[in-house]
Amino acid sequence: MKTEISIQGLTASLSSARQSRKTIGFVPTMGNLHQGHLNLVREARKLCDVVVVSIFVNPIQFGPNEDFDSYPRTLDQDSQLLADVGCDIIFAPSVEQMYGKYPRLTNISVGQITDDLCGAQRLGHFDGVAVVVTKLFNIVQPHFAFFGQKDYQQLAVIKQFVQDLNMPIEIMGVPIARAEDGLALSSRNGYLSAEHRQTAPVIYQSLKTAASNLKQGALLSDVLLQIKNELTQHGFEVDYVEARSPMLQTVEQFDQDIVLFVAAKLGKTRLIDNLQVNFSSSFKI
Ligand code: AMP
């Protein structure tokens, strides 16, 4: 496994793979890797000849009061984990490599589906994601790119601009990896106090209860309120509890496949989760 820190180094490493028509799979990350990230790499390994993982904490997707400076950076540990799951190349550029050479005058802004959920709370976040992912796509030129359903809105935004801009890349969504108690794995879980870590699985529990209530005929509005109340009772500060269609259109009732979304804070740590609730399979004929 190679680690490249420059764009030129990466391009050189990939040129022979490209010449011999190998398929390139790409997993963009911000590092501090856990099993959720590694599952993406495992999927890439199954499907592609060459697997590239980027580790880059992207400054332009963090708001002014967010955790860019304190975000955990653990490259040595990440390299070991990636070697174990068969990654071929780590691309770990500096901020200077990615943004330093020229002032950036171009933005990529996906409309409508970034207006709410995390987009409403984190202004400019998805523009920052769209710019860095597009830059990384242009540098790596992968055939397949793998993203987690944990960041469901991000995955939808990426699918949208890849389609809108005719990028020749297949976007693969990978299911959420969870701890045994149901908490969605996240690099930010490390910020939780021991007490908050014990409370955090309530998010997934309330989503699962909601899904089962919906399948038994409960009203969507009631179920969303129930999740919100349960989280508040457990000491969460709720950012949002929402339901959307799979491509993030608003839904009023549970009469199609939907996704339930939660963002809530425990102390200073903001946690997000979601659960897909399938409409058709709720009917037994
Ligand atoms: P990040 O390092 O947080 O930018 O995440 C890099 C990629 O890993 C994104 O596509 C995330 O959606 C994905 N990811 C993070 N946590 C999980 C998880 N628990 N399950 C599945 N994918 C995840």
3D structure, described in words:
There is one protein chain. This protein has 285 residues and is an alpha/beta fold. It has 2 domains: 2-174, Rossmann fold, CATH 3.40.50; 187-275, Pantoate-beta-alanine ligase, C-terminal domain (Pantoate--beta-alanine Ligase, Chain: A,domain 2, 2-Layer Sandwich), CATH 3.30.1300. The chain has helices at residues 7-19, 35-47, 75-84, 95-100, 118-121, 125-140, 152-164, 194-199, 202-215, 220-233; strands spanning 2-4, 24-29, 50-55, 89-91, 144-148, 170-174, 237-244, 258-266, 269-277. The strands form 2 sheets. The protein has a 6-stranded parallel sheet with strand order 1-4-3-2-5-6, sandwiched between helices. A 3-stranded antiparallel sheet has the order 7-8-9, with helices on one face. Helix 6 crosses helix 7 and helix 9 packs antiparallel against helix 10. The N and C termini lie far apart (52 Å). The mean pLDDT is 96. Bound molecules: adenosine monophosphate. Adenosine monophosphate binds next to helix 2 and strand 5.
Keywords:
285 residues; alpha/beta; Rossmann fold; Pantoate--beta-alanine Ligase, Chain: A,domain 2; 2 domains; six-stranded parallel sheet; three-stranded antiparallel sheet; 10 helices; 38% helix; binds adenosine monophosphate
